[in-house]
Design brief:
pyruvate; 159 residues; 6 helices; mainly alpha; Pyruvate ferredoxin oxidoreductase
């Protein structure tokens, strides 16, 4: 048997040039029992659609069930919104502003304290002066008058 017409239809089908009637001819051809061996791989493609049509039939009551679902009036549920929930976006915005201001203040403080320090020359003429700081406390003497509870500090001259 010569299947030239079916092969031509298949070539046109792959190029998307077939009409709906020609595609129906292909479906009918592949739905028959005897298909040549060279066209056997394409049989599942055309038979699948026919099998799915038979399997995907909806019941008679499907439309009625859908219309019942659509036409049902659903009660509207009111939500109670507390004052805290209403002000929550404001609280979040205030927290963000507080964090930004804190970070800005910390950054500004570090930049102000991190000014480059220049070494100034040490004066050599004051080498006899006592250094200021913790070492000065060693040279001080404190006298406490037990009757008046007054402390007096006398400095010792280092010159």
């Amino acid at each position: 048997m010569d299947y030239k017409y079916i092969e031509q239809l298949m070539e046109r089908y792959w190029r998307c040039e077939t009409s709906l009637q020609e595609e129906e001819i292909l479906r009918l051809f592949f739905s028959q029992g005897e298909v040549p061996a060279n066209l056997q791989p394409y049989k599942d493609l055309f038979v699948y659609e026919q099998e799915q049509k038979a399997a995907d039939i909806l019941g008679d009551d499907f439309d009625q069930k859908i219309l019942e679902k659509v036409n049902e009036d659903q009660p509207v549920k009111a939500r109670v919104i507390t004052m805290r929930q209403r002000l929550m976006p404001l609280f979040k915005a205030a927290a963000v502003v507080a964090i930004l201001l804190t970070l800005q203040n910390a950054l500004q403080e570090t930049l102000n304290n991190a000014e480059p320090t220049t070494q100034q020359p040490v004066e050599m003429s004051n080498t006899n002066k006592a250094p200021k700081g913790p070492a000065v406390a060693k040279a001080d003497s404190t006298k406490i008058d037990s009757t008046q509870k007054v402390s007096t500090i006398t400095d010792i001259d280092y010159n």
